[in-house]
């Protein structure tokens, strides 16, 4: 389980851009929605340990990320797959190299890394694009490549930050179907940030809505949010 407890994130000038937020993500599927600049990306980056909170805590299976050293944080991050909003692909590497990268970086032997990368690419329908560089892929293919890189480590949790952004309706529907079909983490969860939550709500996703960095609807809203606010500041 990933838990945010009184989580706050502030900009360098001290302006609060998220929180306080209290919510938990277990084995269910969740969509986090809200308008632009509502804090969705900031929340996801904090949950993944990519940015440090200014107040509050993030727990991964009971471990407080702020209390872990670099080795411990690296170990915990192996349980999280992250699909970046802007794809964050390496143009210097081909499709296969992009998906192998997180495995080889963590010490997986190259033959095993290549085998697993090929399996992930087959799963997202890019098995015939192994030697293509990302800049030659369509927007939909880049999204699928980012998904393959996120699932290749076999994470407990998959966080996908606005994976449908910029896609036409047909490609967005196919991407949604792909994520739902691929995610089979019995002990983890699928967490998606999206401006439009309707396609995910129709599939039974739990919904959390953020507005101005606070939970406006869903677990952690109302009295619970007020209580966390008092504890966090």
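-> sequence recovered:
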């Amino acid at each position: 389980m990933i838990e945010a407890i009184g989580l706050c994130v502030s900009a360098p000038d001290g302006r609060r851009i998220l929180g306080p937020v209290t919510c938990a993500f277990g084995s269910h599927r969740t969509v986090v929605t809200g308008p632009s600049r509502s804090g969705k990306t900031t929340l996801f980056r904090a949950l993944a340990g990519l940015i440090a909170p200014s107040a509050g805590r993030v727990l991964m299976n009971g471990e407080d990320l702020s209390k872990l050293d670099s080795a411990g944080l690296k170990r915990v991050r192996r349980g999280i797959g992250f699909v970046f909003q802007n794809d964050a692909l390496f143009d210097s590497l081909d499709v296969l190299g992009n998906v192998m990268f997180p495995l080889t970086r963590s010490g997986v032997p190259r033959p095993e890394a290549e085998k697993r990368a090929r399996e992930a690419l087959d799963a997202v329908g890019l098995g015939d694009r192994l030697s293509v560089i990302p800049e030659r892929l369509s927007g939909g293919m880049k999204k699928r490549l980012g998904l393959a890189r996120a699932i290749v480590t076999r994470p407990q949790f998959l966080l996908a930050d606005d994976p449908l952004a910029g896609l036409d309706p047909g490609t967005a529907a196919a991407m949604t179907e792909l994520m739902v079909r691929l995610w089979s983490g019995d002990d983890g969860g699928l967490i998606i940030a999206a401006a439009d939550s309707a396609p995910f709500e129709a599939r039974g996703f739990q919904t959390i809505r953020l507005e101005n960095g606070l939970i406006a609807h869903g677990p952690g809203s109302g009295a619970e949010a007020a209580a966390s606010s008092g504890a966090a500041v």
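The chain is about 35% helix and 25% strand.
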